[in-house]
Write a structure and sequence with these properties.
Strand content: 25-35%
Oligomer: single chain
Number of helices: 3
Number of domains: 1
Structural class: alpha+beta
Low-confidence stretches: 2-15
Distance between the termini: 50 Å
Number of strands: 9
């Protein structure tokens, strides 16, 4: 009987230690595209080159807007046709995407008191991700 309990505990521990998807990690800002930004916005963004954006299992850290320290909802982030994904950040804002079905959608803070609050719009294309900033800038993450 003890071995059955031990096996159950081991299975539960293995299920909880599930490997997160490859996009669920820390990303570094590698570039900023903002042709229409004001000089002040451009300077503010340039000073934050190399900042880190973290897509964590239970939290989202975004130094460019708002964090989700108490829970995050990635349900809207799913594979979409490249043409649809390119439109998520504004027409003509992204380079050609390498994946025919990149991940794209909204990152939301999970809020127990109400509906999720959108804090980021993102396209993840293999080793690169693109994050829309409220100034209209597109941040390239690697």
């Amino acid at each position: 009987m003890r071995w059955l309990i031990a096996a159950g505990l081991l299975l539960a521990a293995c299920a909880h230690a599930e490997t997160p998807p490859g996009w669920q990690r820390t990303w570094r800002v590698a570039g900023i595209d903002c042709p229409r930004c004001s000089p002040a916005d451009r300077a503010w963004l340039a000073a934050r080159q190399a900042e880190r954006v973290v897509f964590g299992r239970d939290a989202f850290t975004n130094p460019f807007y708002e964090d989700c320290p108490q829970g995050v909802d990635y349900a809207d982030l799913r594979p979409r046709p490249a043409t649809e994904a390119r439109g998520f950040l504004g027409a003509g804002r992204l380079p050609a995407l390498g994946d025919a079905m990149p991940l794209a959608g909204a990152v939301r803070c999970a809020d127990r008191a109400g509906p999720p609050n959108t804090v980021a719009r993102v396209v993840i294309d293999g080793p690169r991700a693109y994050l829309l900033h409220e100034s209209g800038a597109v941040l390239r993450l690697e």
